[in-house]
Amino acid sequence: MNQAVRFHDQHVADSHTSFRDAVVAGLSARPKSLSPKFFYDRPGSLLFERICQQPEYYLTCTEEHILADASDEIAALVGPDSLLVELGSGASRKVRLLLEAMRPSRYLGVDISREFLLESTRRLAADYPWLEVHAAWADFSRRLALPEGVAGQRSVAFFPGSSIGNFEPSAAQAFLAHLRQILPPDSGVLIGVDLIKDRAVLEAAYNDAAGITAAFNLNLLQRLRHELGVEVEPANFDHLAFYNEAESRIEMHLVSRCRQTLRLKEWRFPLEEGERLHTENSCKYSIEGFQALARRAGYMPTAVWTDPRQLFSVHYLSTP
User: Fold this and answer.
1) Would you tell me how many other CB atoms lie within 10 Å of the CB of residue 178?
2) Distance between CA atoms of 299 and 292, rounded to whole angstroms?
3) CATH 3.40.50.150 segments of the chain
4) How far apart are CA 108 and CA 104, in angstroms?
5) Virtual CA dihedral for 144, 148, 152, 153, nearest 10 degrees?
6) 43, 115 in Cβ contact below 8 A?
7) What is the pTM assigned to this prediction?
8) Where are the beta strands (DSSP E) in 45-164?
């Protein structure tokens, strides 16, 4: 089989302008905020891969162990010769735990970071010569469509890493409902969901001793400088991550260390000392709570796997 990756450019043509407009809107808001999807330029994607290797960050290794143990059961649910769609594919490490067991005929990686996407899908194409590999450069948090050449095939959407937690629950429900609409009949969703647990475990995961998560958070300011020309000094900000128990979510912020003004062309964005720029939520769920959300989005929860410590869960959701 020809091992060239079939590339699908689904990124908006004015992505630079869209990024700038989102930044202007977020920095003008009260309180100030930016979407976590903007973390993932190439340096941010590399930093996230390092986060996944930190001992405090239980999410990655726990999910990998669950997937390895459940791969045969997952393959039986999915069936052979399907399309495997990985949302937020990143380095495509976890999907390797599924490929041999599932033996899909096609793989589609979807990611917002173009260079990272191409690197990871090219490695997959080289390592699995029997697999037809597609790559879609797209922001899957917007309206996603399966590209021509793969649309219509029975599919399973793989959404690992508890990235669903970056959506507020109502937005997560809407995202899953849209995903159900674009998947062919008799498809499914395999999704990793972080569970509610002890505050100390949660907060340690987002405040690793090596400071990688802090660097990842602060890299967002570097991206604003390099891509948009925002006049901002990252050293004037501190990383803050804490568990908001009332909302069942980790929150990440950048905290201004002094009174300062960020500048972007004609725009001015003043910040007071101690003022926060909200950069990410990571919502946590009970198993029952997430299954209820999935039902509201139109799915039938079919199977769930977890680890002995009940840190993390992987769900298989069937479409009607």
Assistant:
1) 15
2) 9
3) 55-198+285-318
4) 10
5) -100
6) no
7) 0.92
8) 83-87, 106-111, 132-137, 155-159
CB atoms within 10 A of CB 223: 20
Q: What is the pLDDT of residues 224-275, one digit of tens each?
A: 999 999 999 999 999 999 999 999 999 999 999 999 999 999 999 999 999 9
What is the sign, positive or negative, of the torsion defined by CA atoms of 62, 65, 67, 70? negative
Question: CB of 162 within 8 A of CB of 59?
Answer: yes
C-alpha span between 199 and 272 (Å, rounded): 29
Give pLDDT tens digits for 26-78: 999 999 999 999 999 999 999 999 999 999 999 999 999 999 999 999 999 99
| Cβ atoms of residues 186 and 155 within 8 Å | no
Q: Which CATH class is domain 55-198+285-318?
A: alpha beta
Phi, psi angle pair for 184, to nearest 5°? -65, 165
Do 278 and 33 meet the contact criterion of CB atoms below 8 Å apart? Answer: yes
Q: How large is the C-alpha radius of gyration of the chain?
A: 20
3-state SS string over 22-50? HHHHHHHCCCEECCHHHHCCHHHHHHHHH
Residue type at 141? S
| Interaxial angle between packed helices 114-127 and 42-51, expressed in degrees from 0 to 180 and rounded to the nearest 10 | 60
Q: How far apart are the first and last CA of the chain?
A: 34
- What CA–CA distance (Å, rounded) separates 226 from 235? 15
**CA triplet 181, 185, 188: central angle to 5 degrees?**
80
At residue 145 the predicted structure's pLDDT band, cuts being 50, 70 and 90, is confident
218 in Cβ contact with 51 (< 8 Å): no
